[in-house]
Amino acid sequence: MAYWQRRLGLLDWEISTRHQKIEGRGECWTHLQGRAATLALGKVFHNHDEPPGEAGIRLVAFHEVCELLLARMLICATARYVSRDEIEEAKHGIIRTMENVLSQPDKRVSQPQPDQVL
Could you list the residue range(s) of the whole structural domain that residue 49 is in? Predict the structure, then answer.
């Protein structure tokens, strides 16, 4: 998860991780004002008794960091009172992140190794 946190520019977030039994494959809990998040990966996927493989863990880790990337947009979408400017700011924050990630390789951050997934 640390790789994707750096790659997506979420360095202003304090992220704690957990590997625990949860109902789904992963969970993301956020506190937007405090820029704190807890990302959890499930020990088993889809009610199977065996743990997920490395590729599955990597995919879920990426998914949960993307949930964090979209957290502000989700809060805007579910708020009772939100201005158009707040929505635009959240939207363009995501777009700028994706521009940076997709338009150029990040030579400062190496690809994650198996022991760096969490």
Answer: 2-106
CATH number assigned to the domain comprising residue 62 = 3.30.2010
Name the average pLDDT for the chain. 83
Q: For 25, which DSSP code?
A: S
Contact present, 2 and 109 (Cβ < 8 Å): no
Closest CA to 7 of 107, 81, 99, 109: 109
| Cα distance between residue 70 and residue 59, in whole Å | 17
pTM: 0.75
Instruction: Please tell me the total count of domains within the chain.
Output: 1
Alpha-carbon distances, residue 65 vs 3, 48, 80, 114 (angstroms): 10, 24, 25, 17
Give domain status of residue 65, yes or no. Answer: yes
